[in-house]
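Re: Re: token formats

Sure, here are both.
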Amino acid sequence: MINPTTKANLAAHGHDHRLDFARGIANWFIFLDHIPDNVVNLLTLRNFGFSGAAELFVFTTGYAAAVVYGRMTLERGFLVTATRIIKRVWQLYAAYVVLFVVYISTVGNMAAQYAIADLIDEYNIAGIVDQPDRILMHGLTLQSQLPHLDALQLFIALMAFFPLALASLLRWPNLTLIGSFALYLAARTFDWSVSSFPDGRWYFNPFCWQLMFVLGAWFALGGAKSTRSIQHWPMLRIAALAFLLFAMLVTVAGQVPWLGKLVPDFLLFPFTPNDRENLAPYRVVHFLLLAFLFARLVPPDWPGFHWKLLQPIVKCGEETLAAFCAGVFLSFFGHFVLITGPNSLAMQVLVSTAGIAMMTAVAYYVSWSKRQDHKSALGAHA
């Protein structure tokens, strides 16, 4: 039995261009953040506050999943919806397997061909020459934490448990959110995590990051409507802006030595280092306040989303999986170009721009291909 309020919210839910725009921004920023020693990634979210593109990606993914599969539950029933979610998990896993195999093969070959032994350690594939079977086995079971693939591994884990979360959210949305928050607190208190190979733990602790995913789903299923009244509180907007400015000051001070000396240690200490693995509470607060102000300032039907200048971002949000996978692979090649060639400012800008352009081209191609399949299906049906 679906909660009547949740059912009404789903039925009235229209297309929100803000979601596609936010997911496109997340994909672009994740690509840039994955290229180290790149001046362009100084423009991404993580450099201006406690949260970053990862929170944006997970939150918007949870939001989109709740809308798509919540509506499917209304139209076709929960059993069909659960099978479609499982199918999506297999698609994500297949994408991960392809990326993993191509990744370790490419990194290994380039490290050997160009005599860059540090690449093996940097990309966490030590032992690929001596124990390829073991590396492959742990990779296929999501135990190997390769840089750049960790977000996709987290996405797979969250979607695998989403049928249970969705069933609970559709019936008891507030109680489910409380349970998610309780799991988050327990994981942080008792240090629950998932181990990785050869040692260490998942870079994104799924027991903690599930909170961001469930928050996105909760807002999609009615949380945004139930909190709409507080958007008109002037004091809340002032407090949100003050916290975001404080977060920017602390973050920049931690990156700029001379500025860090001007900020008292008691202000820097609680936020240094920024706990990303276990999703520190101040990261959650920072992201929610950022989302609150964005939702307040930008309406769902803002005409700017149709501007040609913003269409590439929106398209990368609409085809988020294709854009993400392309970005993962392109980020390695971008890093490789910079460490084997002239790592100049112009080259960093060129690599970043070219990578984003190719990501966008992939998104546009996938979108075009889907339309052709749809036309063929309509033609065959006729």
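Second one below.
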Amino acid sequence: MAKVNKFIFWTPRILAIVFILFIAMFSLDIFDGNYGFWGTILGLFMHNIPTMILIILVVISWRHELAGAIIFILTGMLYITMLLRTVLMNQPHQWFKLFWSLIISCPAFLIGILFYLGWIKKKRIKRNKIK
């Protein structure tokens, strides 16, 4: 395995974990309702499906930086697309809500770019070792 700068290696991974915790924080609104024990458990599960998917994606991205780059950039684009579709179909007069997508999509894009930079660095190191 090629040795890459520790900052380039760890930054996207740590940011991905913080991003997952940030997304998981939104599931805590389930405690505002009176759903009972099983309703709350089901609500937490449903709210955390994106979090569980992101955890699986981070595990894949941990060793395969290019996959992480593609996954996180596509995740940001998917979120923008879903929000754009929802706003334009249901509330066209509230287009300003699209700016909210930056809160979710910009960190995903940043993590994807950092994974890509890590992949590029690792590729260059391997190429220089071959020469």
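Residues 7 and 101 are 28 Å apart (CA to CA). Residues 6-130 form one domain.
- S.
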